[in-house]
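@here heads up, posting the sequence + SMILES for the thymidine-5'-triphosphate run so it's all in one place. Ping me if the SMILES looks off, I pulled it from an old spreadsheet.
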Amino acid sequence: MIRPPLVLASASPRRMELLARLGIIPDRVVATDIDETPRAAELPRQLAARLALAKAEAAATSDALTLAADTVVGLGRRILGKPADAAEAEAFLTLLSGRRHRVITGVVLALPDGRRLKRVVETTLAFQRLTGQQIAHYVAGEEWRGKAGGYAIQGSAEAFCRFLSGSHSNVVGLPLFETAQLLRGSGWLRP
Ligand SMILES: Cc1cn([C@H]2C[C@H](O)[C@@H](COP(=O)(O)OP(=O)(O)OP(=O)(O)O)O2)c(=O)[nH]c1=O
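bot reply: prediction finished. Complex structure tokens:
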């Protein structure tokens, strides 16, 4: 069987690295430029699902499989996306201090025949209480840039995390278990 090419509709180097752990190197990488603004009263899960689909649709073609994902942090009904600046990163970490939150990733695999295979994956985390000094030091380190919620679990922020339930790769931007399931479900990945 000839496999169609795989397109990764993401500019995130983490998603490339996570796919590489499955032995997968996309044939093409396409950065999409979609509006990531939440709609009024939109919930974190709804946003992650909607944006993953929008990224997939922006890059999908009829001769390839297209994989897209979107990761957001949910604090109750509140959505924490990628902070715009250091002040917002500091505000997000202040909100996350001492509280449970969820990291939600929507994953969409667009098939050449027009089908769209979808998953929304949630990981629950709890951060220790953070002092103002810890937050300021973390923000000065720049790891928050381009990361939902203003932190990167794959960096030093794992030291803030006293509890994580669910998929770790989901927090980094692509849940490997569910992604492999989607690729297998499409017949693209074997065994
Ligand atoms: C919470 C958390 C998020 N992130 C990242 C994963 C995502 O790349 C990013 C959320 O932004 P996304 O909009 O999901 O992705 P992106 O802007 O990096 O790339 P693209 O839109 O082109 O696909 O936050 C981490 O790397 N570590 C973490 O601990």
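MO: The two ends are 14 Å apart (CA to CA).
MO: One more: The chain has a mean pLDDT of 97.
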